[in-house]
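Hi C.,

You asked whether I'd gotten around to modeling the 295-residue construct. I have! Everything is below, sequence then structure, no commentary in between.
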Amino acid sequence: MTIAPTVLVLPAFVHDAETLDERQPWLDRYGFANERDLPGAPEPLQYTDSTDGTGPLALLPTGMGKANTATTVAAALTSPELDLSETLFLSVGVAGGPPTETTIGSVVLGDAIVDWDVKVRWDAAEGDGGVPLELNPYRLDDHVFRPDSALLDWAAELARKTDLADDPEVKAHRERYEGRGAHADPQFLVGTNVCGDEFWHGRVLAERVQWLCDEYDAGTYCATEMEDAATATALYRFGRLDDYLSIRGIANFDRPRPGKSVAESLHDEDFEAGFELGLENAVRVASALVDERLG
């Protein structure tokens, strides 16, 4: 039997620890009564029973990083077990974010997805003091993916009606940071998402990430993650980019707070303090879209 999902949700990673599992909130909310192994996918496809007039909701973890994600999405798109011709694809998970623009617990709907890895970079110590980056001269395009504007508008209208959670401990954590975004309450944003296999951290690298966004005329970045450019690439190759949205909940800031070094910040016991809140709010927004599609 061919499965024809109305929506396919693509979390990245599944861990044993309950606090580090992007799939679990979906299992808690929906009844995934069925599963199917797909060659090339790291986890089984789980799906609900079909409802009147719609196909099922399907859930397929991709694995962390761009290689895992592109392989999984391509495996789904080419599987004879699936009919994805009418499917809405959603990347839903956590992300880092700049305290200048957003806060932990906010949700970013990506209107531009920038691939951070397609560039030239050299050792700053051997440079002339400028930004040690330039655009890759061998690139075929600008490696910025822009979802369909009508689909974005539909999603944003529903998302703005969604209540977001907050947590007093996370609020106290984020107020230690500098930046107009850090001290705000969690909110829904439409903005630029930067994707890279490099898990970077720090103010200097943040400035370079923004430099690349400026070179691509992609706006000010609001979220950073490791999968969505790969998902967008696979869907673009199969002519399905217009059916794709990225929804990311901010779980941590991309730089240290005052008085902390980069190494101290990365290994601070509070670094993942916003994981559950960021994921919860991302799933709240994505669930609103899913429920609308499922009727």
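If it helps when you're writing up: The domain at 92-294 is CATH 3.40.50 (Rossmann fold).

Thanks,
B.
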